[in-house]
Design a protein that fits this description.
The protein has about 325 residues and is an alpha/beta fold. The protein has helices at about 5-15, 35-50, 65-80, 95-115, 125-140, 145, 170-180, 195-210, 215-245, 265-270, 275-290, 295-300; strands at about 25-30, 55-60, 85-90, 120, 150-155, 160, 245-250, 260-265, 320-325, 330.
Amino acid sequence: MVWTPLHAKIHRTIRSRHLFERNQRLLIAVSGGQDSLCLIKLLLDLQSKWGWYLGIAHCDHRWRSDSEANANHVENLAKTWGISFYLETANEPINSEATARDWRYQALSAIAQANNYQYIVTGHTASDRAETLLYNLIRGTGADGLQALTWQRSLTMGIMLVRPLLEITRTQTEQFCQEFKLPIWEDFTNQDLQYARNRIRQELLPYLRENFNPQVESALAQTAELLQAEVEYLEKAAQQLRKEAIAWGIGHEEGSPTLISLRLNRRVLQKAPLALQRRVMRQVLQQILTDAPSFEHIEKLTALIIAPNRSQTDPFPGGAIAQVEGDWICLK
């Protein structure tokens, strides 16, 4: 086996970040593109040092005319390497990026649960991290959106999603695939500029590299890494503040059945910085709204922390209203 600097880097990353344990079962998501082929080759080469059992999963969205041939290509690679192969094919073509992502993670989780894999591993890179940061920044987001694509997160009970290549750029994975003559399956939809992410990849990032910073992808990925630790800290602090401020009450309204209302102590919240106040309100709204709360939802609830008595919001989606009652904000 040829041991490259990339092998050494990934080996160190896995060990220092505790991404995997020894002798674990790893399910690798392989599309056939350069990033996933680089990932599976690296893990195959490191397998003897870690004692992993590796499997390959491929998800066919059926949104390309060559998707079946693509799936066959990945299956043949798995056979060549002597690795278990699992295929999930969509019942009908999936045309939305968000829908495809949700379906893909559900499919991977089902495969992992059915076959006793503890980890699902994807080939997301520093370039993906940079693109995601820019994409979410342009759409409007807080620090949580900017730090998206974390090293690991829990998908379902007992199954972790892990991304070991987040410090590796797409240029590096391409060079690695060329060095080892890995048979990349080119996804022609990556060139379709109707998708915002492709425009970021094909137009915006090259412009930023040429005119502002040749290492812009690594720089943005480092920003996401810094934000990840800060977001984790703030989320934990907000959870503690919410526990101190929250109370559940049972009330009655004329002509209505007994109501269970959520109450927040304004005196407790007023002592906290605005950043934590907003996070508490977002956490509270996540409990009562079916969809993710918007910036406007969070702001109008946060404003009640210092609002006059009897102030109230207009209804949130679903009909809930927040009202100031003395030292309390009551949601009902």
